[in-house]
Amino acid sequence: MTNFVDISMEFALQADQTDPLRSYRDQFHLPKHSDGSDIIYFCGNSLGLQPKAVEAIMMQELEDWKKLGVEGHFHAKRPWMPYHEFFTEKLAKVVGALPEEVVVMNTLTANLHLMMVSFYRPTAQRYKIVIEGGSFPSDKYAVDSQLRYHGFNPEQGLIQLRPRMGEDTLRTEDIEAVLRKHADSIALVMLGGVNYYTGQLFDMKRITEIGHEIGATVGFDLAHAAGNFPVQLHDWDVDFAVWCHYKYLNSGPGSIAGAFVHKKHLNQKNIPRFEGWWGHEKTTRFKMQSQFIPSATAEAWQLSNAPVFSMAPLLASLELFDAAGMVNLRAKSLILTSYLEFLLGQIQSSRIRIITPKDSEQRGCQLSIQVKNSDKSLFNAITEKGIIADWREPDVIRVAPVPLYNSFLDCWKFTEILKGCLS
């Protein structure tokens, strides 16, 4: 995106000084190295850092529980009864949805199963599911189990997209070719928005168009896309999507997840779903009727009332996203990731290479560094020097310069440490 030429620390410092989003770094707790310095934290694609505002929000919920007991459902500072509604408008902006199309609930894979109950409707002729080869294992486990549940053998019912020989990532034209080849037998296209291993950002708009042209339903796992890239789920006509919030959206380990259902599917009583009382139309929910009446929004897929302590940290993070704006975060991300790529390109070593697409429009902020001979000793060495990244088997170090809290100086320091460890 940007043609960098200066590899000096002074350039990184100057870039940080002119960064319009630099103040957001101060809104997060940064882990400390044993020498007292800030850790270089490039692991927001696995677990985001804790916003400083989280503690006060959590303490408020604990205080309200202590003082109010069950009355906290109605009289807490943020009443627990409608707690999931506090996220709707801000979260809709993050994923490009209408407010009625999103809901905060459950965990990611649980939401994926709930969505497939509704939107994977196989027939004897049209029953296949398309995923990317090398998808996150939980996604493959989920679609395999759905195929078996419906009486199909995953070996026949699962189509896994593979890159061309000698290439690391998928081409959109090759995805299209596979979809059109199997057009009469595909029921569901279910890809990750960003591949967890390579960091490739898929052309979700085009894939959705093709999927609908062949008569399939299209859904996405946005675990590595939500909060990383300004997706436009409603405008792209995506049928459904699911995501977690603990990566780029900084909601804490194993916290609540999210789901999207396109408006065209809402308020359709004939859609099959697994039902629970919190999905019931809210004005009559507590009349305890025996007949389920679905909410007219994505809330119809809810099963249970809000797990407040799991949800609370997300409030703090979404406030920051709302203030910064996804467009501004993406603008910084493009520059920051390109800068890190530039610095890595100055390292003369045959031991590493970047497998993430060079085209900045085909990636978020993650760069995947493949290490020759699956040698984890390099990852261990940079960890000892104060870097938190992550290792993904068999041979990749994933690094993610997150625009909310990472800096140009982080990128420069990381590269200097990596260079030293390689030498």
What's the helix and strand layout?
Layout: H1 9-17, E1 40-41, H2 54-68, H3 72-75, H4 88-95, E2 102-104, H5 108-119, E3 128-132, H6 137-149, H7 154-157, E4 158-161, H8 172-181, E5 186-192, H9 204-213, E6 217-221, E7 240-244, E8 257-261, H10 308-324, H11 326-345, E9 352-354, E10 367-371, H12 377-384, E11 387-388, E12 390-392, E13 396-399, H13 408-422
Parallel strand pairs: 1-11, 3-4, 3-5, 5-6, 6-7
Antiparallel strand pairs: 2-8, 7-8, 9-10, 10-13, 12-13
Query: Could you give me the name of the CATH homologous superfamily of the largest domain?
Result: Type I PLP-dependent aspartate aminotransferase-like (Major domain)
CATH class division of the largest domain: Alpha Beta
Strand content: 5-15%
Shape: globular
Number of helices: 13
Helix content: 25-40%
Whole-number count of domains:
2
Give the structure's gist in a few sentences.
With about 425 residues, this protein is of the alpha/beta class. It has helices at about 10-15, 55-70, 70-75, 90-95, 110-120, 135-150, 155, 170-180, 205-215, 310-325, 325-345, 375-385, 410-420; strands at about 40, 100-105, 130, 160, 185-190, 215-220, 240-245, 255-260, 350-355, 365-370, 385-390, 390, 395-400.
Could you walk me through the main structural features you see in this protein, from its secondary elements to its overall organization?
The protein is α/β, with parallel strands linked by helices and about 425 residues long. It has two domains: about 10-55 and about 325-420, Alpha-Beta Complex (Aspartate Aminotransferase, domain 1); about 80-320, Aspartate Aminotransferase, domain 2 (3-Layer(aba) Sandwich). The chain is built from 13 helices and 13 strands. The chain has helices at about 10-15, 55-70, 70-75, 90-95, 110-120, 135-150, 155, 170-180, 205-215, 310-325, 325-345, 375-385, 410-420, and strands spanning about 40, 100-105, 130, 160, 185-190, 215-220, 240-245, 255-260, 350-355, 365-370, 385-390, 390, 395-400. The protein has a seven-stranded mixed sheet, with helices on both faces. Strands 9-10-13-12 form a four-stranded antiparallel sheet, with no helix packed on it. The protein has a two-stranded parallel sheet with strand order 1-11. It is globular.
